[in-house]
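TA notes. Do not distribute before section.
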Amino acid sequence: MVFYEPSARDRDLLPHDPFKAIVAPRPIGWISTRTADGTTNLAPYSFFNAVGDRPPMVMFSSVGMKDTASLALESGEFVWNLVSRGLAEQMNATSRSLPRGTDEAEEVGLELAPGHLVGAPRVVASHASLECVVVHSTRLRDRHGAETDQWLVVGEVVGVHVDPAMITADGRFDTLAAQPLMRAGYTDEYLVADTMLRMTRPA
């Protein structure tokens, strides 16, 4: 077993940091927000996940106070959009650094629709979207208490959009049919959910 401390890994053996390849796959945080003047913003985040279900909550972490994080905090709202395999190229295109105020969805030819309960829009082509209200945010600190350039935003899910084609006859969301795209290890690596394993939880 190879052991290393993150600040002192053997760069001959591991020239590429394996951290994100080890903690994988991860759902893509395709987050849409809206400015005060109504301009929309859409960007994918590598660090995203659900953090609770009573009530349902999700989080994303921004390396640097980027437009999405700042707009979510300013407006108090955001929408998460599921990235399926069919949306992979458009999602990737929205990761480009563009001037604040640029509408990424328009740039890549995506239709947006207004939220029902929040001001931020959703991606119409997404098989599922979660309307969220920001309930917590913090600048992350390291183990010594020093502030990092990473910002955590937690949102409570207040509204859920689901493509009816993704609902099975027994009322389940069909994850395999939705083909969610997930982040793998390195900047150009992704995975698609294509296998379901079911196990009964012990009593």
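Switch to the second chain here.
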Amino acid sequence: MAMLILFYTVILISLSVFSNSAVYRVGDSAGWTIIDHPDYKNWASTKNFHVGDTLIFSYHKQYLDVMEVSRHDYIHCDTNSAKAFYHSGSDSINLTKEGDFYFICSNSGHCLAGQKLHIKVNHTLHSSSL
């Protein structure tokens, strides 16, 4: 009986985490672009990312893409060792663990011009679920 209660408790907690998850469109209305040089560092600084949230990268897939990279590759705009590569034009990335995450465009000129994003994902729940 105790195992059954524990099982249901875990399920309920899991459902509450995902039901209070946030969806963030990277760059808001500008999306993922190099046009007008959006400040992705400033954009990320105004958000509180949590496990269970989702990032949406919207962009013109003929010219742009998204790569998840290491901190080193983010700093140096190095596209040789991507952890993940997205190119649909509307990529949905679920944040499943806490930590620092780094994204760049594979066009190194774009990355060098600022088309890159660093976010910190917290393990804590959103305040609306507490």
